[in-house]
Write a structure and sequence with these properties.
- The protein has about 500 residues and is of the alpha/beta class.
- The protein folds into 5 domains: about 60 residues; about 110 residues, no CATH class; about 45 residues; about 180 residues, Ribonuclease H-like superfamily/Ribonuclease H (Nucleotidyltransferase, domain 5, 2-Layer Sandwich); about 35 residues.
- The protein is about 45% helix and about 10% strand.
- Strands 3-2-1-4-5 form a 5-stranded mixed beta sheet, sandwiched between helices. A two-stranded antiparallel sheet has the order 6-9.
- A hairpin with a 2-residue loop joins strand 7 and strand 8.
- The chain is flat and about 130 Å long.
Length: about 500
């Protein structure tokens, strides 16, 4: 019997056995025309072959038409977690096998700051080849020779994400003990974990005749200490410390003991004399010598602070607090934010020099100086803001190995400070309390760089070094430093 005219020409174009099998059964499974016997007669194929392919296609789809020599392997879905997370799960399973999956998610988040789904953690935990080991005697709570170290271990595990039941089973310590040390730590930090001497916590009772006798000695010897009063008292049954407590009570009870300062009413806080009410009304400039050395030199951090928004408008790392460095930072601030109304500084030579005063005069800046040795340090807000630099970024600054890296870290500190919340702005009602947001687009008296050049021209000149590290000024060549080709520098004249 001749093949059907619609199937015979197609066989010449078929390049794959799977394609031929699908075309064989297509009228049956797609168009539902005819029977397997009729299709076999049309295509000169055995009816069992047609029935086999129809049955396999119905159960498996196109995979049922794949030839036997082709192996079908399903692609395993990779887990969306990093290698370090998987290693941490192996480590935790080796330490303790009683973790809960949500507890593991919390531990991983605290350690790697990476959120992992509980179902993923369960799959990784069950697939981990590491077997949970037996409890080591070294890790138990009672095995620590130092009790403070054992209590600190409990606190560390809790703040690393372990729950109390896991800590209890892992260290062989009771839950009430864990609760007690956690409560003490939250109340008084590490000092509460140390052993305390037993004894009464309430003050000891002191009888009235002894208090009166100490009182009369205090009136005759108002500047004597507790040991001297104890020696004058001549009582071997009373300790000097007890005499000291009696003296403190007498000073609170009796008003006629000489040389005792009388506590008056607390004065109400006065407004800061340089509290700005508008942007760029007051700028503050100051320098701080670093507490560490870079290449054997303790560098200076020189910063200009805008008083209204507490924005650090300019800053630089310099080798010394000199006039040229102060003018360089002031020039950078004026180019970016304009010229302020007033500038507050201390009485250092860098800010009281004739050159610095002349530049302030030519720009119309009211320069006011304070005397730190006379208790006026609080008037310069930049001095207090150096404490923020010390606590927030001194560690990162100390890691710099070269002056160039130190300057980069210093600029990173200025950006971090200007883009994070400030407590003073929060108290003043700024929303958001971020220095750059509080300053916004406000500017002082704006000048172009060409207009700012004449006021600074008597002192500061911007130049770019040539390939030999030299600069030119008024037909004169100056050598800067080897290794600084094509670098922007400032010339102080």
């Amino acid at each position: 019997m001749e093949p059907a005219p619609d199937f015979a020409p197609l066989q010449l174009r078929m390049t794959d056995q799977m394609q031929w099998r699908y075309e064989l059964i297509r009228p049956l499974v797609l168009l539902e025309e005819g029977t397997p016997a009729q299709r076999a007669q049309e295509t000169q194929t055995h009816p069992d072959t047609v029935r086999t392919f129809v049955r396999r296609f119905t159960k498996q789809g196109l995979l049922g038409l794949v030839t036997n020599d082709v192996e079908v392997v399903k692609k395993k879905r990779s887990l969306p977690v990093s290698e370090e997370v998987q290693q941490e799960i192996h480590r935790l399973k080796a330490l303790h096998g009683g973790f809960r999956y949500r507890e593991l998610a919390r531990i991983l988040f605290y350690r790697f700051h990476e959120r992992v789904d509980v179902k993923t953690i369960k799959q990784l935990w069950l697939q981990s080849p590491v077997a949970a080991s037996e409890q080591l005697e070294f890790w138990t709570y009672q095995s620590y020779p130092d009790r403070l170290e054992a209590r600190l271990h409990v606190i560390k595990l809790f703040y690393q994400g372990w729950n109390k039941s896991s800590i209890s089973r892992f260290l062989h310590v009771s839950r009430p003990t864990i609760d007690r040390w956690l409560a003490r730590f939250e109340a008084d930090h590490v000092a509460s974990l140390m052993d305390k001497k037993g004894g009464p916590t309430s003050p000891r009772k002191m009888w009235f005749p002894l208090m009166v006798e100490v009182y009369h000695l205090q009136k005759h010897h108002p500047d004597a200490g507790e040991f001297r009063i104890w020696s004058l008292l001549g009582r071997s049954d009373v300790a000097p410390r007890t005499v000291g407590r009696i003296m403190a009570i007498n000073k609170q009870v009796y008003d006629d003991i000489p040389h005792v300062a009388k506590k008056g009413p607390k004065p109400s806080p006065q407004p800061h004399p340089y509290k700005a009410t508008r942007p760029h009304q007051y700028w503050f400039i100051d320098g701080r010598k670093m507490d560490f050395e870079t290449e054997g030199v303790r560098w200076w951090s020189l910063i200009v602070l805008e008083g209204y928004s507490r924005t650090m408008v300019a800053g630089a790392i310099v080798a010394s607090e000199s006039s040229w460095a102060a003018l360089m930072v002031l020039y950078s601030a004026c180019v970016r934010y304009g010229v302020p109304e007033s500038l507050i500084s201390d009485s250092g030579g860098a800010f009281t020099s004739n050159e610095f005063e002349a530049v302030c005069g030519r720009l119309g800046i009211v320069h006011r100086t304070i005397v730190s040795t006379q208790g006026e340090s609080y008037l310069n807000w930049m001095e207090t803001h150096f404490n923020v630099q010390r606590r927030l970024y001194d560690y990162q600054l100390s890691l710099a190995k070269t002056p160039a890296k130190l300057e980069q870290a210093h600029q990173a500190f200025l950006h971090l400070y200007n883009t994070t919340a400030h407590q003073g702005l929060l108290k003043d009602g700024f929303d958001p309390p971020i220095p750059l947001e509080a300053l916004g687009e406000a500017r002082g008296r704006m000048y172009s760089e060409d207009e700012l050049a004449p006021p600074f021209s008597h002192a500061l000149f911007p130049r770019t070094t040539n390939r030999y590290g030299c600069v030119t000024l008024h037909s004169s060549h100056f050598y800067v430093e080897r290794g600084l080709p094509q670098t922007r520098v400032w010339l102080w004249v």
